Amino acid sequence: MATIHAPVKGFNGDGPAGLEFRNGTAETDDEAVIAYARRRGYGIDKPATDSGQEPAEPADPRTIETVHAGAPMRDAAVDPHPGDHLPPTHAGEANPHGPAVVAPEIGAAPDRAGARKTAAPRRKSTKGE
């Protein structure tokens, strides 16, 4: 039976392969779990060693430069261009999130572009007659 020591001192909770850690330790005799724990920095029969490295300082988002890759995205409902294939109806004229701007189905026939579907007529129930 080997004692596994968590890399976090005093850890309580679930560990790899269902190990239950209490106060930073758990016990197992499963060789696969022991090998996994050893590779991942857990201590086996002794406390886990500290790597000696200081934790990395998080990056300051104000100093990160954004690099754009590829073509910029454009919403045809907000900024329509004359060459757009089947642009939404009333694109660029009405609120793009409102009911007046309707996008046609992909591959819709040009005469049906923007047409709303109507519900099929409901059948009368014959039950209870």
Entry keywords:
7% helix, 1 helix, single chain, two-stranded antiparallel ribbon, three-stranded antiparallel β-sheet, Lsr2 protein, 129 residues, little secondary structure
Secondary structure elements and their pairing?
Blueprint: E1 2-5, E2 13-14, E3 20-21, E4 25-28, H1 31-39, E5 43-44
Antiparallel strand pairs: 1-4, 1-5, 2-3
How many DSSP H or I helices? 1
Strand content: 5-15%
Shape: elongated
Derived from helix and strand composition plus strand pairing, the structural class reads little secondary structure
- For the termini, the CA-CA separation is 77 Å
Report the average pLDDT across residues: 77
Low-confidence parts, pLDDT < 50 over ≥5 residues? Answer: none
Number of strands: 5
Percent of residues in helices comes to under 10%
Largest sheet: 3 strands, antiparallel
Rounded to an integer in angstroms, the radius of gyration calculated over CA atoms is: 31 Å
Characterization of this structure:
The chain has 129 residues and is low in regular secondary structure. The chain has a domain at 2-44. It is 7% helix and 11% strand. The chain is built from 1 helix and 5 strands; from the N terminus they run E-E-E-E-H-E. It has one helix spanning 31-39, and strands spanning 2-5, 13-14, 20-21, 25-28, 43-44. Strands 4-1-5 form a 3-stranded antiparallel beta sheet, covered by helices on one side. A two-stranded antiparallel ribbon has the order 2-3. A hairpin with a 5-residue loop joins strand 2 and strand 3 (20-21). It is elongated, with a radius of gyration of 31 Å. The relative contact order is 0.10.
